[in-house]
Specification:
Chain B: InterPro entries: Ntn_hydrolases_N, Proteasome_beta_3, Proteasome_bsu_CS, Proteasome_sua/b, Proteasome_suB-type. The structure holds 2 protein chains of 2 kinds. Chain A has 4 helices and 12 strands, in the order ββββββααββββααββ. By secondary structure, chain A is of the alpha+beta class. In chain A, helix 3 packs antiparallel against helix 4. In chain B, a hairpin with a 4-residue loop joins strand 11 and strand 12. The chains are: A alpha+beta, B alpha+beta. Chains A and B meet through helix 2, strand 9 and helix 3 of A and strand 4 and helix 1 of B.
Chain lengths: ~210, ~200
Amino acid sequence: MECVFGLVGDGFALIAADSSAVNSILVHKSNEDKIMVLDSHKLLGASGEAGDRAQFTEYIQKNVHLYQFRNGIPLTTAAAANFTRGELATALRKEPIFCEHLLAGYDKEVGPSLYYIDYIATLHKLDKGAFGYGSYFSLSMMDRHYRNRMSLEQAIDLATSASSRSVLGWSSLPQTSSSRSSTRMERGSTRGVNPFHQYDGYVHSIVS
Amino acid sequence: MSIFEYNGSALVAMVGKNCFAIASDRRLGVQLQTVATDFRRIYRIHDKVYIGLSGLATDAQTLYQRLVFRHKLYQLREERDMKPETFASLVSAILYEKRFGPYFCQPVIAGLGGDDQPFICTMDCLGAKELAKDFVVSGSASESLYGACESMYKPDMEPEELFENISQALLASVDRDCLSGWGGHVFLVTPTEVQERTLKGRMD
């Protein structure tokens, strides 16, 4: 029932996620943040079993930090994605981790990138990707409206419209202004006006 | 749905005159949903040996990483590249190691062996090798591929004709399989060069 999707634009990568934590008919929480900040230029949006999601994304975050402490330089996005994939693949035939991920990052040499990592550890680099029931709406919307090198404003508009039909989606997202002067995380949430849309959306983007 | 058809795939390799071609589709799906349309299934081991891995994408990626590792070790020890027949035996052994918990992949191996003679083989997920002199197929579209290749194949084709035939066979077959398609990748390997081409087919 969750909705996590991401896309790559002009000098930025963006991940949007719904903020619901539900268990059948019970809403545990409606402002759950499912996007883990790995470091200043990497995000890991995850969806799936709640315990696995929280625990595994934190595990990846700590290991990314450990690499930086040990080696003095941060991991590249591709390396972080392959590390995540490796952990999932190793666990797959022992105790599988039922959580799907979108890893977005910005590297100086490569630019923005987005990696799709399945719960069975399928890794693929993509320009636009989505998970959960919300993906049935968001993938089609992105197929129709996504262009190469979109601006941040266009991408946030797309993120807003891509999730408006999903029961756990959101119907509006904040207007954010972005400047390209430095690396920045932007994050906004708002409540939709429609009473059925009570959930926030969190949008994180990494700007070059 | 079978675990081999979870991601959807189509692979074919054909032998020509002192050359071979190996082709795959480009779709990566999760059952009915298409996730990507530029997924690579054919990997280069070295200039004269290529392996295509159909079946579950995660096991294909894991298996490829293990094979590259083993081949690099072999290169360090033997100071030369592996012959395709040797490589096929290596793949077979690695797959059989997991006899009671296998990798859900069906490899297609194609290479130029001694005297640049083309070599192709396929195997099931447990490593049972099947050598062929004409063509081998694998993937969720394998039944259609068998039919298309059987009718289009001729022995001793020149590279350009081989490329044309393998492309037509692949595109015709994936059109009959909903889990594979979205174009194709073809590697045409001769003793002197490797040509990689992308096919545009029905994008659905």
